């Protein structure tokens, strides 16, 4: 009954593992890709107020003007890049929709899109759904999960349209330094590509300040910048994100968006306005707490002798299992024997085999208890 | 504020081991810092926040607003300090507006508090007016809400 295209995208073996986790009791989960914080009260309160005042309608397809203005100002203040709020910013239902729109806006059948792996799980399927070709570009722990100029160039053909990047990264926690970014930007410019940059974890950068690709010389026009409220403001359930790019791309994306989703929920957009204009302090408190947890888990994993890349962003670490077991067997046994849930690294691409993703978006106590259990588990493997 | 102070303010009983893990500093460095904060009086005390209702030890509290005549050269300090010295008095603030001092008084029962206000506070030389507000229910104290806490409803695993 279903189309060939849809049959091509697999929901993969990971589903089975998910069901195992969801069915298990008393599990400490380090497998969650969203904040453990509840959305700060001021933000929730502004949505309640909006509902009380009768904000229950559609908004402009582009999103509320006030929100677009606030986003434009935010990007300008942070990165010095100016996006016209009239036609260069589009508010979407999360980065999920933003990414899908970006792909559909630029991809013709047969176009190749390079996806840097390990990567967020939605990137490839959305490309396949428009008959594009998703080209995997594996990265390694030795290079901190960042691709080099040469590695990218090797994947480029005359069909290559764009490259998808996500730093700070899910699942590896990797961030980029200026030099690495410039190298990537050079390939993009030299080969006349589009860069889709998912910067949803930008605020969760624990070392220095996040630089946006759009702020690099000559990159604004080539970059489709994706960002949103889910992670930094603990607003996953609200479904608000945005695309910032040139007028042509945004106008293309709006064409799809107006027919497939019309707009992001108005009360969520109202909440997002509060978040982006007044939410800085509460956001910073959450970021500080993630950073404390990051130090705990990184320290513990190193003590256990696991091999780690530098993890300075998002709320994930991606340790190598040093060949103890494969990703899936390790994760399943850890769940069954020690009641700790992690995500097998191969869920994020073939090059993630041999790794696990640990999310530290959980309490310090949970992290410490889970680390003790992982350590016991590793010792039991050595025996 | 220093990271260590921020953490201790929230959880004074955290172990030095955990502090080490969180901050990346050595246990000796942390011990030295904490000692310094205590010596300098930056950390005044390590206290526990107790829900007295649960202990079954119900106390009565009142916010007492006072109007005073200031003293030349001293302002309100002299009287405010005298009031602060009573053990029944838990908090004392000089405030702007209709009153001068706002004082939190603790007692075993209403009579106890009422007696303290009429006998000890209202009779002070410089005090010429008091208004007593008995506290009927506490919702938030020391930044902690005292009602049922919220819970995150996220799934146990997601990508
Ligand atoms: C890299 C990345 N991009 C996008 C998303 C989806 O975010 P949103 O809630 O804005 O749709 C996630 C969520 O896990 C993510 O990790």
TrEMBL record, chain A:
Keywords: Aminotransferase, Pyridoxal phosphate, Transferase
GO molecular function: pyridoxal phosphate binding; transaminase activity
SUBUNIT field: Homodimer.
Protein family per UniProt: Belongs to the class-I pyridoxal-phosphate-dependent aminotransferase family.
Name of the protein described by the UniProt record: Aminotransferase
Cofactor section: pyridoxal 5'-phosphate
GO terms (BP aspect): amino acid metabolic process
Keyword Transferase appears in the UniProt entry: yes
Domain Aminotransferase class I/classII large: 26-374
PROSITE patterns per the UniProt record, alphabetical: AA_TRANSFER_CLASS_1
Matches recorded under CDD domains: AAT_like
EC number of the protein: 2.6.1.-
Classification via InterPro entries: Aminotransferase_I/II_large, AspAT/PAT-like, NHTrfase_class1_PyrdxlP-BS, PyrdxlP-dep_Trfase, PyrdxlP-dep_Trfase_major, PyrdxlP-dep_Trfase_small
From TrEMBL, chain B:
Swiss-Prot/TrEMBL keywords: DNA-binding, Transcription, Transcription regulation
Gene3D superfamilies for this protein: 3.30.70.920, Winged helix-like DNA-binding domain superfamily/Winged helix DNA-binding domain
Domain (HTH asnC-type): residue spans on this chain: 1-58
Coiled coil: none
SMART domains according to UniProt: HTH_ASNC
Keyword Membrane: no
Pfam families, per database record: AsnC_trans_reg, HTH_24
GO molecular function annotation: sequence-specific DNA binding
Descriptive protein name: Lrp/AsnC family transcriptional regulator
The organism's taxonomic lineage, starting at the top: Archaea, Methanobacteriati, Methanobacteriota, Candidatus Methanoliparia, Candidatus Methanoliparales
